[in-house]
Amino acid sequence: MSAPPPSAPTRAGYVALLGRPNAGKSTLMNRLVGEHLSIVTPKAQTTWQRVTGIRTESDVQMIFLDTPGLLEARDLLQRAMLAAALEALEEADVVVLVVDGAQGPTSDDTARFEAVLAGASAPIFVALNKADVAANAAVGAWERWVRERLPGAEVHRISAETGAGVEELMHAMAARLPHGPFLYPVDEIASDPVRFFVAELVRE
Predict the structure, then answer these.
(1) What is the pTM of this model?
(2) Which pLDDT score, from 0 to 100, does residue 48 have?
(3) Could you give the CA distance from residue 151 to residue 79 in angstroms, rounded to a whole number?
(4) What per-residue confidence (pLDDT) applies to 148?
(5) Concatenated DSSP letters for the chain?
(6) Please, which pLDDT band fits residue 38 given cuts at 50, 70 and 90?
């Protein structure tokens, strides 16, 4: 990583990663940042609070906000987790809805996504994760839903596990970030202290 020349225009902003539990948000953020920052386990709802990862390349700095999964809040902890996700949505310059492309959309999921994204003012991307193993029918159903219910959103087929399609998604997101100075030093990859990540790895 290197800082751009002082006169070079730069882009910087926040990218909120939203989606259902176990859709692959944490795997995607780790892939985008290039480091294992966010917990990845088969157990749902392991991301209890948002985790911030930073990627700086030449003239672009992207601050990724990995959020707890969107679900129906049934207790105090789940309400707090949902509030963390909605707070990230309000701060975001770009919103990425990560969905499990191997599982077709359900009415409950799409209704929840539409309700949450209704208040978004930032550009929306839909990352159809696990597209490398998903059936065409399931992926096609998600793409139809986006066309019909999220007009203007940009769809990308990706695999957070293998990295397929992730670079294309990253470049598309970077182009939608606002012009402005970097918000963090170019060599930082996270905003949380080391103690936080050690605790998270132990929990994983």
Answers:
(1) 0.81
(2) 47
(3) 29
(4) 96
(5) --PPPTTS--EEEEEEEEESTTSSHHHHHHHHHTS--S---SSTT---S-EEEEEEETTEEEEEEE-PPP----SHHHHHHHHHHHHHHHH-SEEEEEEETTS---HHHHHHHHHHHTT--S-EEEEEETTTTS-HHHHHHHHHHHHHHSTTPEEEE--TTT-TTHHHHHHHHHTTSPB---SS-TT--BSS-HHHHHHHHHH-
(6) low
